[in-house]
Write a structure and sequence with these properties.
about 20% strand, 14 helices, 2 domains, about 45% helix, single chain, Serine Threonine Protein Phosphatase 5, Tetratricopeptide repeat, 7-stranded mixed sheet, elongated, alpha/beta, two-stranded parallel sheet
Length: about 375
Amino acid sequence: MKKNIIIISLLFLANQFFAQDKIGNKIYAYGNVENSIIGKTIIYYGFSDPKSEKKIVEKFQDLGVDAISWNKLFIPSSKYSNYEVNNELANNEISTVILIKSNGKSNYTQSYANTNYNGLTNSLNTSSSSSSIIGNMGIIFEIYNRKSNFNKPVAVVNANANNSWGTAGSERGLILKIVDRVVSALKDEKAFNPVGYFTATETNYSTIITDNPNNVDALFQRALLRSQKSEGLKEAIDDYNTIINLEGKAKPTIFKMSTVYNNKAYCLIQLGNYEEALRMVNKALELDQSEWYIWDTRGELYYNLNKFQECVTDMDKSLSIKESNNSLYYRGLAKIKLGQKEEGCKDLSKSKLLGNSSASKEIETLCN
């Protein structure tokens, strides 16, 4: 199976909550907290304080969460496209995003008086000053995961704490105090589940689909698993057809529609249905010509249709985007069919070096 591009769209939506549960001292939860933090987790800390961010990530790690900082993948102040962000999260197999942000704070003014005796004038001199001290801090933890398609939070925790340290208190100290309480409460509520979305099985995806037939992400992942077995190709095509029928009705977060058409085409190639496969891969290229694997799919299809020059042309485009042993393999075979034996054997040799075991057999047969 060819490489598939995964796209995640994170939507940090405005909070609209209808019920809450108290899960700790001044800690309230909305939604289903249990098993909400699954697999590898990235924490977006909405305060400009790297030291606190590091400590907060470590607090989650200490309780067994496979957590990393958002800034580990994304450089602060740098601009990233939605595609770059989504692809990076998928490539790092992030299953959960926790967004930590302020929910407001209060301050109060504390006045001080200082009296000194002046011996020269035999008098008392009193001076006064005042300072603003933080009184209360509120923090919101929004939890998103792939089981909900990242479309909305699966759970939200709202917590606050009073400053009991007076002038010794600080925003950082109060935030860390709140985080300690929240992380402990999340543990008690069994929020942490080490099994992430990326380790799910076909059975798990089927369960998700039964609960939500419009979950196109689960359909896509199940199709990928099914297509890895020859007896599952027709079922994989059924899943891809369902996704195509839901286009415009259900929003994917881990794939592009061009990949769906490409993958369906590749299943059809393996089943020998070249005519329909050509329609599917041409549709994929109408949607996106920037992915190497779509050109590779059509190039392999052209080879099976004995259109060897067309195969070479498509594999040239594929290899101009990314080097692939499959593209080199079929380009090599096509060149040999076109009478370009020397160039074709060079492609097969390079394909072999890149790990294509089938190239070894062809070299023995065609290049000696």
